[in-house]
Design brief:
CATH topology of the largest domain: Methylamine Dehydrogenase, Chain H
Number of strands: 31
Largest sheet: 5 strands, antiparallel
Strand order of the largest sheet: 1-28-27-26-25
Strand content: 35-45%
Number of domains: 2
Oligomer: single chain
């Protein structure tokens, strides 16, 4: 947002235009937090970390109780656990890999990271008629695995692995990304860059190369493309993206093959050139059936730095060769790649093109389509949540008070009826505060003399008048 001082909490709320409910997010260091539309914290699940936190009806929340030590693994969580409204564990999974971590010793861990989906809800947020139930019997998890693939890179690699498990923890299916390395249509230049520098992380036992850094995986769910005969969009197929390689793709669940892909070349067709490159993206998903825009793909296009290519004066190894210093939420047709809707800095608080930093989150973040056609947006590095109408009017805005300490990975809007333990709030509009209310006294006075000589603790100087000129306060 380009500001160092601003109010926090809910600073804008138009109840007549929002799809009101609770908002769930993870406050790192605190646990899962649920706020109402006024920004009041209505419930917390202390120490329930979330990568991300998700809720199902009944006020039940998923997350993790232990993050593996960063010297043992990179962004790994030891478990995926469901707790009730009071924080009591209901279900947990950790039986994926056996490890020997220095901090806790030998044991089983899930190695879950970035995403998971509970049976019944293909993308993890509210859609009419697609709710996970207490008796779910299948979970999709995005996990890690340590491998050596010397033809890809001589360095140890951190591989993204999808697994499906049943309620007892039995593995039903798996998919390993590096087994499909040749399917991504990478150029020799890009492969050579990955070989030299596979995005080596300074965490984990060996400093593994996180080549793709996948940050989302969700089922497509029921959709009209498949109903109309396009087999690529089978509801059981899985959409994913690579934050580092600037690629989005769909995995055929039955064959394991990649059946749909865009990137890393966004000049290949006119439609891709009009869309522009997806850089460092997060939360790619197909908008679920029953919501406006159903069947379109939505993504938080972070911008920032990503991609592999030729070394140059800003990238000595050929890694992170593409940089865009602004973010956009993009909704597009997956068959024509036509952009249907976007939201960017120029739609919010600035019409000046070079003010892209007014809406810019180079890491984390997500976007959720709401039943009334609005979109909930988490600008994660700023800790700012926006609810935006199809006409791009911001009708709700919240700023997390502790964003200077923690990023907000994802935020989800929760229907009131999913949390029967709480009493629904009475909506009360909040008007954005006037900028003039936050002026330092005297600073906006047109008659103010900025050349007044002042004294501060014995020192003299000019230009400090607004804050220290006593006769102007």
């Amino acid at each position: 947002m380009g500001r160092s001082v601003y109010p926090t909490g809910t600073v804008r709320y138009n109840p007549d235009k929002t799809w009101s409910g609770y908002t769930l997010f993870n406050a790192a260091g605190e646990g899962a937090v649920l706020i109402d539309m006024s920004g009041k914290v209505v419930h917390e699940w202390k120490d329930l970390q979330g990568f991300p936190n998700k809720m199902i009806p009944g006020g039940k929340v998923f997350g993790s109780l232990r993050c593996r030590d960063r010297f043992a693994a990179y962004q790994d969580y030891a478990d995926l656990t469901e707790v009730d409204f009071d924080g009591q564990p209901i279900w947990s999974f950790n039986h994926n890999q056996e490890v020997d971590d220095e901090d806790v010793g030998k044991g089983w861990v899930a190695r879950q990271h970035h995403d998971y989906q509970i049976e019944g809800n293909p993308v993890g947020y509210y859609a009419p008629g697609q709710d996970s139930k207490d008796d779910f019997n299948k979970v999709l998890l995005l996990t890690h695995n340590n491998v050596k693939k010397r033809k890809i890179s001589p360095q140890p690699l951190l591989e993204d692995v999808l697994i499906e498990i049943d309620r007892s923890g039995k593995k039903l299916w798996s998919w390993h990304i590096l087994d499909h390395f040749r399917e991504f249509h990478l150029t020799n230049v890009q492969k050579n860059a990955m070989f030299r520098d596979p995005n080596t992380q300074q965490s984990g036992e060996h400093g593994e190369g996180d080549i793709f850094h996948v940050n989302c995986a969700s089922y497509l769910g029921p959709n009209h493309w498949f109903d109309e005969g396009d087999e690529r969009f089978n509801p059981n197929n899985i959409i994913m993206d690579s934050r580092e390689a600037n690629i989005m793709w769909i995995v055929d669940h039955e064959s394991g093959k990649i059946v749909w892909q865009i990137g890393p070349d966004y000049t290949a067709t006119r439609a891709l050139r009009l869309m522009g490159p997806l850089v460092g993206m997060h939360h790619s998903h197909m908008i679920p059936q029953g919501l406006p825009g159903a069947g379109n793909i939505m993504v938080f296009n972070n911008g920032g730095w990503a991609g592999y290519g030729l070394p140059d004066q800003t990238s000595k190894t050929g890694m992170k060769t593409t940089r865009i210093d602004t973010s956009r939420v993009i909704e597009f047709n997956p068959t024509t790649l036509e952009v249907v809707w976007t939201f960017a800095a120029t739609d919010f608080d600035s019409k000046v093109p070079f003010h892209g930093h007014h809406f810019y989150s180079p890491l984390v973040s997500d976007a959720q389509r709401l039943p009334n056609g609005n979109t909930l947006i988490d600008e994660g590095t700023e800790g700012r949540f926006l609810e935006v109408t199809p006409d791009k009017e911001v009708v709700w805005e919240y700023v997390y008070p502790h964003v200077g300490e923690y990023l907000v990975y994802r935020a989800y809007r929760i229907p009131y009826e999913w949390v029967p333990q709480l009493t629904k709030e009475e909506p009360k509009a909040i008007t954005p505060p006037a900028i003039a209310d936050f002026q330092v006294p005297g600073a906006a006075d047109p008659n103010f003399n900025n050349d007044v000589k002042v004294s501060v603790e014995g020192a003299t100087g000019y230009g400090k008048g607004a804050a220290f000129c006593v006769d102007k306060l």
